[in-house]
Every structure is written in structure tokens, then in C-alpha cells.
């Protein structure tokens, strides 16, 4: 994909070459069950709303709620990203992405993918560690570049969000 704005932004970053680790079971469970609803109704939360709370963590969300379709897309993005460095582009064609999801390759699905990636970009997630009195606020995706002619995507994932998950099987505050 030849997107000058994306390549300029990417080359200006001086990131370590790290790879995604697998998320802990507890972290995935809390986030998956709280962020990605089973409802087909997309509730819009215009203010920060508490959607999950444990003894140690409060999880708030603002934006259009994610559902299982968004979860499928997010997990496929992570699957593609595991082979790439954090902080770098995650690049794919809509055709290969939809094929990997087992979806039809047609205009309707191309449009749905646009909606899903935009929704994942727009949702604001707030995680508060009660004991540490620290809060992280961010989104799953920082930026999306799309070539509408070739249907090539470049997604920039939020590296700090991914670093919230370590091997201790719990959400941990990023360094």
C-alpha cells in the first residue's frame, strides 16, 4: 500500500522489535466478556460507563459497544499482528482478511469490515488499577489507513494497550 502519510508516520517511530505474546486467560476473559457483548443491538455510550469491576480493576467504556462480530475482527487483527512487530503496521488486504474470517468476498462484507475497524478505532477503554491508583485510557487501534481502490489496510495498534497483558495471568499496569 502506498500511503505517504502512513509511511512517514511509521518511519518516524523508533520502536523496539517486539512480538505479541499470547494474552493471559484472566485478562482475555475480563476484556472479552465485558467489551464484546453478545447482543446484536449496538448501544452507544456517550459517557464513560463502568462495564466491569473486580477487587483490583475497574473497566469503563465510551463509544459504540462492540459485539461478537467486532470480536471476530479484533482477534483476526491480533492473529495477523502476532507475526509483526509491536508499534509497526499491521497490513492486510480486505480480501485476505475476509477470507481468513470465512466471510463472503463482496461489497457488503467490504463495507462491514470498514464499519467494524472504524468502531474498534473509536471505542475508548479505561482501565483503573484500584490499588495502584493508576488509570490507562486508550483504544484498541490508534490509526487506520485504507486504500479504497485496492482495499489494502494498514492498522496501527495501541502498543501500550497490548502491554497491559503479561504472563502473570492478570491485567497489569504498563511500564
Automatic annotation (TrEMBL):
Pfam families: TrfA (PF07042)
Name this polypeptide is given: Replication initiator protein A
Amino acid at each position: 500500500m502506498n500511503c505517504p502519510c502512513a509511511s512517514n508516520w511509521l518511519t518516524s517511530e523508533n520502536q523496539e522489535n517486539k512480538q505479541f505474546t499470547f494474552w493471559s486467560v484472566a485478562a482475555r476473559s475480563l476484556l472479552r466478556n465485558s467489551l464484546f457483548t453478545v447482543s446484536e443491538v449496538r448501544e452507544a455510550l456517550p459517557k464513560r460507563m463502568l462495564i466491569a469491576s473486580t477487587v483490583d480493576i475497574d473497566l469503563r467504556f465510551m463509544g459504540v459497544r462492540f459485539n461478537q462480530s467486532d470480536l471476530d475482527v479484533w482477534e483476526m487483527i491480533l492473529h495477523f499482528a502476532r507475526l509483526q512487530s509491536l508499534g509497526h503496521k499491521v497490513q492486510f488486504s480486505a480480501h485476505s482478511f475476509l477470507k481468513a474470517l470465512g466471510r463472503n468476498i463482496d461489497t457488503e462484507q467490504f463495507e462491514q469490515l470498514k464499519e467494524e475497524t472504524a468502531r474498534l478505532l473509536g471505542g475508548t477503554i479505561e482501565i483503573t488499577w484500584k490499588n495502584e491508583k493508576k488509570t490507562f485510557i486508550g483504544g484498541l487501534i490508534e490509526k487506520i489507513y485504507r486504500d479504497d481502490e485496492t482495499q489494502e489496510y494498514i492498522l496501527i495498534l495501541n502498543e501500550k494497550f497490548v502491554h497491559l497483558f503479561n504472563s502473570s495471568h492478570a491485567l497489569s499496569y504498563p511500564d
